[in-house]
Structure formats: C-alpha cells, structure tokens
Amino acid sequence: MDIPAMRANFAKAAATGDEAPLYFYSHLFLTHPETRQLFPVSMAHQRDRLFAALGEVVARVDDLDALVPILQQLGRDHRKFGTVAAHYPAVGASLLATLEHFDEEWNPELAKSWSEAYDVVATVMIQAAEEAEDQPAWWDADVLAHERRTLDVAVLRIRPRTRYEYLPGQSLSLETDLRPKLWRYYSPANAPHPDGVIELHVKARDGGPVSSALVRRVGVGDVLRLGPPVGHLALDGESDRDLLLVAGGMGLAPLKALVDQVASQGPPRRVDLFAGFRTEDQVYDRASLQQLAAEHPWLSVTLAVSDDPASSLEQGEIADVVLRHGPWVSREVYVAGPAPMVDDTVGRLAQHGVPPHRMSSEVFAPSRPGPSVDGEVTE
Fold first, then answer.
1. Cβ–Cβ under 8 Å, residues 155 and 284
2. Helix, strand, coil shares, percent, the chain, to 5
3. Which of 332, 326, 330 is CA-nearest to residue 359?
4. Residues 328, 274: one domain?
5. Per-residue burial over 72-85, b = 16 or more CB atoms within 10 Å of its CB, e = otherwise
6. How far apart are CA 7 and CA 4, in angstroms?
7. Is residue 376 part of a domain?
8. Residue 199 in 3-state DSSP?
9. Domain for residue 308, yes or no?
10. Structural domain count of the chain
11. Is residue 213 part of a domain?
12. In this structure, are strands 332-337 and 359-363 parallel, antiparallel, or unpaired?
C-alpha cells in the first residue's frame, strides 16, 4: 500500500469541504438505500464525520500495532448503530467512488492501495463485532436525578438496568429519544459503585443537539441508551505514586472518577486535584469537591479562574497555578480538558521535569461525535 499517495489523494477530497461528504453519502444511500436507517433523520450534524473518520483510520494502516485495538473498539461500538457485516462493503465502495471522483490522477494502483487498506480495517472491525455478540449492543439506563448547576451545565445520575462495567477515566456514548441516532460521549464522574449509579457532567454546547437536550429537556424517569465504554485515561495498576490531577472545565469528570477510585480501592496515596475555569460562576461542582476534600485528608482540591479578577479563587491559567504549587516531578500526572489547556499543561509540566511516560491526558472537544482515533472525547 502506498500510504503517502493515499494521504495525498484523501487531502484532495477533503479540500472540497462539504462536497466530498455530500458525494459520499449520496453514493452510499443511492446504491445501498438500506444503510440510510443507520443515520439520523437530519444529517446536519453527521455530514462529514464518517467520511473523515474513514480517511483518518484507513490512512494509518501502516501502524497496525496502534490501530488494531482502536478498530476492535470501534467494531464493538458500532453494533449500537445496527451495523452488520454486510454494511462494510457498501461503505468501502462509496469511499473509493468518492476518492476517485475528486482526483483526476486516480489510477489502478491507488485504487488497489485503498481497497487493501479498507479490507484490513473492515476485517478487524467485523471480527471484533462478532466476538462481542454475547454482549449487549447498548444498555438502557434510567435517569434518577437531574440537577442544573449553572445555566448550561447539568449533573445527571443514571442507572443502567443491567450490569454495566467500565473503568474510572473511561467514557461512554449515550443516545436519547429526543435526538435519535445521535450518540455523544461523556465521562462518568465516579468509579463503578455497587448500586450501579453513574454520575455524568454535561455542558450544553452551541450547536450541540445532544448536550442541549441532556441539559435542558431530559428529566427524571427518562431512559437513555449507553454504548460500550471506551478510552484510555486510567490509573496505572502497578503504581502507588502520588497523583497530580489537572482539569479544565468539563475535564473535571474523569479526574473526579479517579479520585473516587483511590477512595474506594486504594492504594493509599497523596492526590492533588486542580480545576480551572474561566470565571467563578462556571465552577459547577464546588460543593461536591469540597465535601470530598473534607472526607479524605489525602486529597487537596484547588480551584482557579483565568478571567475573573474579582474572584477570591486562585488566579491564572491552570498550568501557572499548578506550577506555583509544585514541585511535581515525582507524581503520576493526569490532565483532561480543552486541547489548548491540555497541550499547555502537559508541555509546562514536561519542562518542569515530569517524565512524559508518567503523564496521561484526554482532550475534551465540543461538537464531535465521540473519540477520534486519538482518543478525543465530547460533546
């Protein structure tokens, strides 16, 4: 497979903006109308996502060691859409038709490379889906509590009707009948509990149909559907090092789950949690964090604001605040939040002397359908 040629080819299609995804879906739905039922009624929030993800995944088949686990996860996850093995050839044919349509230099060698790459991707995903047939494609979960913490943030407590296993720091996709076939990812803010209750933190995003519905319309008694858990932000089970946890905005949720894990499972260690927000009125979970710190003497919680000089909270970008409280060179570090905050914090802590292998991070990006192949989470 000529990976550079494939990337150059895909770039030509991507450069057309909406034209390539529109051609892709038109080709798919016209040649295989049965696939239309897999997608939401309105494609406004879906149009470029599958097409972009296909290109991103297929063009990385030269790194199978890293890609195969991701594909296996995607194969298991896509069962919730109703995807079956017969759908994969249809999608592959439409992908190749689209790439050929937007490249005047398309040739048999390029077609062969794309076909072989897609076959690898489809085979791995289909096999993973088949191996997961004894697992539910999704789990129904009842909304037990819904609390508006700010104008655009709500905390939900939900309970799956059957056993749902996940690891602290992972994310789960969910769907509501208010937005059928639109699945979005959120990180539980607690470790698994015997009662099965999961706490979710949701911020309504501009143009985010699912997040807006979860914050403003979902209520107690409603039923959500959960997909299988995904993600990689998890404590090292072989380490008992003290922890530094740094959150920006809604990135607080998975880090709070890690705190809960230490509290319920150990091993005993010092944990310093820093949470940064733009203004003080955005600090939506203060009471709960203060209660955690009061209950656990090994936990320190520091809240900071970057754009609220009247606030009594610590001032500054969260990376600056963290470094003022150092040193941190002996810690295991976990960072979650918006991409600029994550990049800045990880970079600054690396300069501070924290080895890269002891830092884990998760980017929380609005208006995306879920984890990308690099693990981003949303909406």
1. yes
2. 40, 20, 40
3. 332
4. yes
5. bbbbbbbbbbebee
6. 5
7. no
8. strand
9. yes
10. 3
11. yes
12. parallel
Domain coverage including residue 273: 243-363
In a shared domain, residues 277 and 196: no
* 127 in the same domain as 7: yes
Q: Are residues 9 and 126 in the same domain?
A: yes
| Structure tokens that stand for 174 in this block | 């969910």
Handedness of CA 225, 230, 236, 242 (dihedral sign): negative
Same domain? For 105 and 193 the reply is no
The answer on 40 and 7 residing in a single domain is yes
Amino acid at 237: G
Residues 287/290/292/296 CA torsion (nearest 10 deg): -160
Rounded distance, CA 51 to CA 43, Å? 13
SS (H, E, C) 279-312: CHHHCCCHHHHHHHHHHCCCEEEEEEECCCCCCC
118 and 164 co-located in one domain:
no
Place of tokens 């040649």: 31
pLDDT tens digits, residue range 320-373?
Answer: 999 999 899 999 999 999 999 999 999 999 999 999 999 999 987 653 344 433
Which residues are CB-neighbours of 181 under 8 A, at least 6 positions away?
38, 39, 40, 41, 81, 175
Residue 98's nearest CA partner among 54, 36, 56 is 54
The mean per-residue pLDDT over the stretch 104-122 comes to 92
* CATH number reported for the structural domain that contains residue 111 in this entry: 1.10.490.10
User: 234 in a domain, yes or no?
Assistant: no
CATH code for position 287: 3.40.50.80
Contact by Cβ (8 Å): 212, 205: yes
| Beta-sheet pairing, 172-176 with 184-186 | antiparallel
Same domain, 96 and 207: no
| Side chain identity, residue 199 | E
User: pLDDT tens digits for 272-320?
Assistant: 999 999 999 999 999 999 999 999 999 999 999 999 999 999 999 999 9
Closest C-alpha among 14, 123, 15 to residue 61: 123
